[in-house]
Amino acid sequence: MIEIKDLHKSYKMGSNSLHVLKGINFSCEAGELVAIMGSSGSGKSTLLNILGMLDEADSGSYTLDGVPIKNLSETKAAQYRNKFLGFVFQSFNLINYKSALENVALPLYYQKVARKERQEKSLQYLERVGLKEWATHLPSELSGGQKQRVAIARAMAAEPKVLLADEPTGALDSKTSYEVMDLIQKINDEGNTILVVTHEPDIAEMCKRVIHLKDGVIVEDKQVEQVRAAQYVQ
Amino acid sequence: MFSRDTWKEIFETIQKNKLRTFLTGFTVAVGIFIFVTLFGMGNGLNNTFMEFFGNDATNIFRIYPSQTTIPYGGFKAKRQIEFKNEDIDEIVKEFAPLIDYTTPQIQRNATVTYGEESDNYNTRGVAPGMQFAEKNILMRGRFINTNDLKERAKFAVIGRMVQRDLFKGENPIGEYIDIGGSAFKVIGVFQDDGGDNEERYIYIPYTTRQLIEGNNDKIDQITLAFKESIGYSGAMRFQGKLDAFIRQQKIISPKDPRGIFIENVADNLKRNQQFANVLKIIISGIAFAVIISGIIGISNIMVFVVKERTKEIGIRKAMGATPGIITRTILLESVFITTLFGFVGMIAGIIVLNFIRGDELKDNYFITDPAINSGTAIFVTILLIICGTIAAYIPARRAARIKPIVALRDE
């Protein structure tokens, strides 16, 4: 599903440049649930941004579902993001003047899905994250956990090949974090490929595979026994 | 591009960001409103000017007699100069190639009666040339002709307001009116662009007036139209020669500041037009400044609006919005708001201009019929919309180009 080879990325900071990714090799199959771990500054968010075509690599190759991702124009990148990827952010990134339903419908709008179908589909996904009754509420009227669930519904609504989650539980307390992870696990159970960036070991243990990043290289890549989040959720 | 979905999305955004919409729209509406009212007022001021000075023929000298102040040629000072019919003949004989037409004028106030209606009017004993000097347009009948002069006919040509007041809109042609005790047959009705007062005159043949007043040959004032082909400087030279000629004829000292006076309409008009032009330039300058500040206002608001939306744009891009879609949406939104509010401001301005017009404004502030040519108003509104669009386009394009990751980090 994802295949990256010898990925390099550095940021220019004034006169000196910061080498963030120093040759990443990584591949993942469909249906995997991968945690990308590392201390802050290890390059894990940069890696995810490159995977999500939000950022570009300096060198190396990246293939997503057999499509080489290279030298994309902004327009092409946007189309690929829309077709292939769903995003979940640490700070939710919902549009604050749109209701939960409208937020979920947004990627469908850019997929040019007809309005009525968009509404139905969005409501269906909101129901799956247990927020059907909150469809007309604005993000400001939702709790942190609810916001993240709306964000997950939004990411899933476009039916992406890969779901990318950047610290999805970073802004949540542990109880809410487990609820969100439970949701992510259930989505993975249905066969969706999910990459989760986190620095919390307990969240990483709820994935099926853990990758450790340190100073821009992968230092560890192991399959783990998945801890089900459901047991922590009443 | 203009799908229902796109518009629905735009309307939702506009509706849910009322303050932002209001700020943008308000800037546009106020800019247009100020422009329209200001420009309208300027036009009103200009109208007053034109009404004062611009509705008579411009190739005109008016020659007035008065008392001398210097003893000359055996005459004492304080001698009242009077014009007679033959004075005109002498002038015409002397300056024939320069003269278009002449007319004497004998002005008398008289009570004028028709049936039950009666009022005091200014009657003017004139020759046919008066019609051209005053630029009168005949609505009915005809003006006084040379035959009327010869026959000393008791004919009267009345102004539109006289017809309205005395005849109450009935056809007055062929009816008889009483002017100061003599019956006159109405042979024509005229209108004059110079306003209502100019339409309250009654013209009669000057020879008839002279007959009524004891068959004399005195005239109050001479109006002389020179050939327009002699030009402005030619007219100034002619004025000097004419002045010298009349002084010689009437034995008035060339140094006497009084005795006769020649009013040069062309000269007056030229000065007044210069003043009116300066006025127009000042008003246009102010209006231009208003438009410029309006454009700057819109640009600022647009930069602010796009800046405020940076994060939203990042989210939309992450959700698969292409830079093209982002730019287009922001532009359509801006065009929609500026168009809507631009025309609201324009219409409000026009309504205010219509509302404030009236005699009070005219009498106290010299503003007559403040109005803006609708073409100008629409042109400026569209200009502001276009400028607003360009002003929005630059930050919109920049926002659409920033990497989503940078936009998402924006707080």
UniProtKB/TrEMBL annotation, chain A:
Instruction: Indicate whether Translocase appears among the record's keywords.
Output: yes
Q: Does the keyword Transport apply?
A: yes
ABC transporter domain sequence ranges = 2-233
The family database entries (InterPro entries) matched by this protein are listed as: AAA+_ATPase (IPR003593), ABC_transporter-like_ATP-bd (IPR003439), ABC_transporter-like_CS (IPR017871), MacB-like_ATP-bd (IPR017911), P-loop_NTPase (IPR027417)
GO MF term (any one): ATP binding
| Gene3D superfamilies per record | P-loop containing nucleotide triphosphate hydrolases
Domain of life of the source: Bacteria
Keywords tagged on the record: ATP-binding, Nucleotide-binding, Translocase, Transport
- SUPFAM superfamilies on file: P-loop containing nucleoside triphosphate hydrolases
A cellular component annotation (GO) from this entry: membrane protein complex
Q: Which family does it belong to?
A: Belongs to the ABC transporter superfamily. Macrolide exporter (TC 3.A.1.122) family.
Q: What is this protein called?
A: ABC transporter ATP-binding protein YvcR
Automatic annotation (TrEMBL), chain B:
**Where in the numbering of this chain does the MacB-like periplasmic core domain appear?**
21-228
Q: Where in the cell is it found?
A: Cell membrane
List the InterPro entries hit by this protein, alphabetically.
Answer: ABC3_permease_C (IPR003838), MacB_PCD (IPR025857), Macrolide_Exporter_MacB (IPR050250)
Q: Tell me, in one coarse class, where this protein mainly resides.
A: membrane
Keywords on this record? Cell membrane, Membrane, Transmembrane, Transmembrane helix
Which Pfam families did the record assign? FtsX (PF02687), MacB_PCD (PF12704)
Q: What is this protein called?
A: ABC transporter, permease protein
